[in-house]
Amino acid sequence: MQPARQIVKDLILARRSELTASERGLAEVLLRDYPVAGLQSVTRLAAAAGVSTPTVIRMARKLGFEGYPDLQNALREEAAAQIREPIARRAAWSSGTDEGHTLNRFATAVTDNLRNTLDRLDVAAFDTVARLLADPARQIHIAGGRITRSNADYLFNHLQIIRPNVTLLSQSANVWPQYILDMGPGTVLVLFDIRRYEADLARLAALATERGAQVVLFTDQWGSPVSATAAHVFNAHVEAPSSWDSTIAIMLLVEALIAEVQAARWDAAKDRIEALEQMFSATKLFRS
C-alpha cells in the first residue's frame, strides 16, 4: 500500500492558527488559486501576497517542508496526480511493492480512503448541508460527471423519497440552462466532480451561483475547480489500485447525509415512504 500523500492545502488549514498575520495573508493567496499560485517563483508569490521572500520560506518550514522548493515539489506532485490518466494511474500502483490478492490491496486502499476522508471531514459543515437538504422550502438539484453520475443518481433516488422538490439534471449539458432558469436563492445544487474534472460542471456551478443558488460539492482530495464557487465542499480520498478512482468514501458521506436528512424530517418522510409502499403494492412492482 502506498502511503497517503499529504495535501498542502490540508496542512495550511490545519496549521492556520500557528501562522502570523503576514503568513495567513500568504496562505489566502495560495488557497485562492491553488495549487497554481504555489508553482510560481518565490519572489512572484511574495509580491502577490505583499510579503517578503523570507516570510514565504518561513511558512513553508512551518508546514513541515525543508523550504519553498520542497513545498513546490509537493504541489507539483498534487497537480500531476490530478491530471493523471487511467493508464498512468495503474502504472503508478503497479510500480509499488504491494503484494497479495487484489481484494486485499483494494480493501486496504479503501479503508485508508475512508479513514483519511473522515479525519478531514468538517462535521459542522456536514450538519449544515444536512439541514439545507432537509428544508422542504428549498429546491434541490443534483448532477454528476461521467464517473460520478451513479453517486448523483443514488442521492437523488433517496432524497426524492424523503422529500419533495428534488431534481436530477439530465446527462446532457445542452439542456442544463433550462434547469438553471428555475434556480434562485432557495436552490441547493449538489454536484459530484472528481479528477479529470469536467468543465461543464464548473460552468454549471458558476451560473447557478450567479442566480443565488448554494452549491454543495463532493470531490476528491485535491479538489475540483468547482470548489472556487461552492458554498460547501466535501473532499473524499479516492485513490485505489486501479486505473479508476474509487468513490466509496464519497458514498459513505452520501449515505450518512441521507440518514441524517431522513431523521431530521422523519414524520413527513414516513408518510411519503408509506404512500410509496402502497403504490408499490398496488402496482405489484416487487414480489411479495
Can you give a write-up of this model?
The structure is a single chain. With 288 residues, the protein is of the alpha/beta class. It has two domains: 8-83, Arc Repressor Mutant, subunit A, CATH 1.10.10; 120-280, 3-Layer(aba) Sandwich (Rossmann fold), CATH 3.40.50.10490. Helices cover 55% and strands 9% of the residues. The protein contains 13 helices and five strands. It has helices spanning 8-14, 21-32, 42-49, 53-62, 68-83, 86-94, 102-120, 123-134, 149-162, 176-180, 199-210, 248-264, 266-283, and strands at 139-144, 166-168, 187-193, 214-219, 232-235. It has a five-stranded parallel β-sheet, sandwiched between helices. Helix 9 links the parallel strand 1 (139-144) and strand 2 (166-168). It is globular and about 75 Å long. The termini are far apart. The model has no long low-confidence stretch (mean pLDDT 89).
Number of domains: 2
The ordered string of helix (H) and strand (E) elements is HHHHHHHHEHEHEHEEHH
CATH-assigned fold name of the largest domain: Rossmann fold
Note the overall shape: globular
- Return Rg in Å: 21 Å
